[in-house]
Amino acid sequence: MRTTLLRVDDLCVTFPGAGEPVPAVRNVSFALAEGERIALVGESGCGKSVIAQAVMRLLPPETAISGSVRLNGIDIFAQSETAMEKIRGVQMGMVFQSPERALNPVYRIGKQLTDPLVIHGICDRTEAKKRVRDVLGSLGFTDPEWMMKAYPWMCSGGMCQRVLFAAVLLLHPQLVIADEPTKGLDADRLGELEEMLCAVSERDGAGLLLITHDLGLAARTADRVIVMYSGLILESGPSDVVLKNPGHPYTRGLVGSLPENGFTPIPGMSPALTDLPSGCVFHPRCPHALERCRTEMPDLCMDEEHPARCRI
Amino acid sequence: MPGDPVMAFVGEDVVLTPELLDHLNTRLGLDKPLHEQFSMFLQSILNGDFGYSYRRHDTVAALILERLPWTLSLAVTSTIIGYASAVVFGSYAGWHAERRASRGLTVAALCISCIPAFLLGLILYAVFVYQLRWFPFKGLYTAAPDLLDVMWHMALPVFALSLLIFARNLLIMRGSVLTEKNQLYPQFAASLGTPQSKILYGHVMKNAILPIITHIAMSFGSILSGALFVEIIFSLNGMGLLMYKALTALDYPVLSGLLLILGIMVVLANIAADVLYGIVDPRVWRTDK
Amino acid sequence: MNTAIRYFPAFPRISWKPYLLPLALISVFILISAAPEAFAPYRPNKLFDPYMELSAEHILGTDDMGRDLFSLLVYAARNSMLIGFASGALAVSIGVAIGLVSGWYRGLLDDVLMGATDVVLIIPKIPLAIILAAYLKPGPWILILVLGLLSWEGVARVIRSRVLQVRSAEFILSAQCLGFSRWYIMTREVLPVIFPLIVPKFVLMTAGAMLSESSLSFLGLTDTTMLSWGTMISESFTYSGFIRGMWNWWLPPALCIILSILAVTSIAFIHERGRRVVIQS
Fold first, then answer.
1. Residues of chain A whose C-beta is under 8 A from some C-beta in B?
2. Which residues pair with residue B245 across a beta bridge?
């Protein structure tokens, strides 16, 4: 039984918005063990990235957050900002979407990679440069020296993506969050990416929280899958179980919309977070909707092996 | 065009016969076509001859050179003080935008930037010189140009001009920092555990300062004009005062010399700003796409 | 990423409360300039004893010729407001026209116009305005012309880049396919998109023109018979008002100048802040 690395309990995130408050994440709970890989899947706007930012405590101060997030037993929301600066990077790291924009355009890549090592007091600058060179080499760069002197805008999206991984991995965090890592990547790079994601947990024993809308990637990489919709968890469980034998109608619809399964889309669109339907949040698009789905929202018990809000 | 050149420099009290008038016209080359006059002008410029001001009985070059350092020291000192404080306070106001101090700073800067240069000088003069007698009445120095004396005389003018520069650029810097705050790279740096201060002064500031550098070039003209008004109010014997007197006396040689110098200074400022921008922002060097 | 730009952008729920104070202030000024007879106790040319102190009949006293200063203040509003707003309107009109044409037609016309814009940009404006003013000793209308002609390049650039963006958007293409004439497209489809840019620019141009007018008037470079707040301050200097410590002569017009510029600039600033809030959320 591996130790729990990350524990999220009843997390709710509400943004103030331009007029009405926007409930981005509602009552989300899950646990990630050391060395485990969990994938958060769902459509755009379902709240998966918000969960990542909440865990890293990178949300703007006006956001209303309730619930708890515990990393290695530490209550993230109770920490001061100074304490968080020590936790971020070394205990948990995040690979962002849009790698080119995540890097500062006016500084060389070498500096951006060595700085965190020096700031956290892990080693001095000379040692840091050596480590950066090694990591860049191991990630497939043929000329690490050039890479270190280069600026981010000189590099392609894929190269920036690998630089981002390097930055995160250099600090050996115990939790790695990857936010939509396949965005903007060419198909031939996907294989490399999957290797990198798996290597993260196998090499370092780190836990991986993978956020993606790509079900295939989730199936190949993750041990467990959590399906989200409009800020709620609809289903969760071992990846092969959930994706081969989905319980919830939404998951069934998602799986059915894959090209290899017939490419049948789910009718309708996911609701705006300010205008949620009554009762079960999925009922307007559900082919099995009953009368009571319009008024009742089914519960979820996350302690089960394969919890789902609704089973067909 | 009001003010015939010859009449202007001869003066309106002298009676001229038509023959004398013609003679003067030929001598000054005023009967030649305009473009020829212009090329004569250029030639003499290149020879260092800016012309002669008959009003002031001195060469234009000497007049301007005598005053140029004073105007420049006023403008440059105010620019440095104004921009430096604008960058520091503007970053603070942008980064911690919700704090009351930031809001206060922003409102104050907004109000001050709406005061015309001459009015700010006027109000400061009325309060600190006229009423309180803390500063001298006029001029650059009392008896001789001694450093402390000059500093005392220039303190209020420099304060006025730098206050204006500070106010306007604080708003720009603040806006720039606010924009950069929303970019992805500060978030990424934060996720790696970079402390807030290093994110602001290391990462964000270098990006946020770029619009300010562009602005220095464009606003050099208005800084010079601000210096001009300040000089007039405080009776500082610089290029501004020279221009004002030349305007009222219709002293054309001085005016054209001044305009040329001003133009050159503006062009130089633009070049300097371009170079500075290239140093700060490496994206300028890319020859790509 | 070519998101289709909405036709008439749905106005987000911006609160108009912060605009209230500056709008009220500038409206008061405009009102006063439109009907000075209603606010001034006397006609500006009526002469009394010179250099009078503040009193119930003369709220601000009188000047060296014996004119009531408060009435002068009220009547001066007209020129100051007129020159400011008219120059702003002129500058914006020229800027919009050039930006629109430049962005729409692109190519050689665009290059030529932008080159001209660069030249205007680099010329130091106030020294040039001063020199022009010295030659022309302009009254209000020439001043409007001069100030308007010197300030349009910022507007032109901004409008041009927006037009360039919009031009390649799909709804323009579809309008062209449907056979609408260029003029129709320009006025009916493109203008609504650039309108949100025009208002803050107009406001800023007006503030700049007010600043320039007051500065030029103070230097005595404008038509001396013109009555504006700037000329009032200039006169207070020339006729020993300042030396005599007659703050009632120059301080009220100074305050009016500052307040009017402040009111106008605040409108632009609040608009900018409102836009940023919307973009962030």
1. 56, 58, 61, 81-82, 85-90, 93-94, 96, 98, 101-107, 115-116, 119-120, 151, 153-154, 164, 167-168, 171
2. none
Distance from CA of B196 to the nearest CA of C (A): 21
Q: Are B116 and C215 in contact (CB under 8 A)?
A: yes
**From the list A15, A16, A18, which residue is nearest C278 (CB)?**
A18
d(CA A23, CA C135): 66
Strand-pair partners of B67: none
Contacts of C131 in chain B (CB under 8 A): 247, 255, 259
pLDDT: which is higher, B263 or B119: B119
**Cα A45 to chain center, whole Å?**
13
Alpha helices for chain C (secondary structure H)? 20-34, 36-39, 69-105, 107-122, 125-136, 140-150, 153-167, 170-177, 182-184, 191-218, 229-238, 247-280
Q: Strand order in A207-212's β-sheet?
A: A92-95, A175-179, A207-212, A37-41, A224-229, A232-238
pLDDT (tens digit, 9 = 90+) per residue, A171-186?
889 999 998 888 767 7
For A252-298, the DSSP string reads HHHHHTSGGGT--PPSS-PPPTTSPPSSSTTGGG-TT--GGGGT-PP
- Report whether A189 contacts A136 (CB < 8 A): no
- C-alpha distances (whole Å) from C258 to each of A43, B129, C202 are 54, 21, 18
| Residue B123 burial (CB count, 10 A) | 18
CA distance B204 to chain A (A): 9
Q: Which helix (H) or strand (E) holds C7?
A: none
Block means of pLDDT (10 residues each) for chain A, 312 residues, are 84 85 89 90 86 90 89 89 89 88 89 90 89 86 88 86 88 90 75 81 83 87 90 87 84 83 80 80 80 79 78 72
User: How far is C-alpha A236 from the chain's CA centre?
Assistant: 15
H helix or E strand, kind and range, residue B13:
none
Residues 6+ away with beta carbon under 8 Å from B61: B48, B49, B50, B257
pLDDT range class, residue C276, cuts 50, 70, 90: low
What residues contact C97, with CB distance under 8 A and at least 6 apart? none
How many Cα neighbours within 13 Å face the side chain of B167?
A: 19
- Cβ contacts of A34 within 8 Å, gap of 6 or more: A2, A3, A4, A5, A174, A205, A206, A207
Coil vs helix vs strand at C73:
helix
Q: What percent of chain A has a predicted confidence (pLDDT) above 70?
A: 99
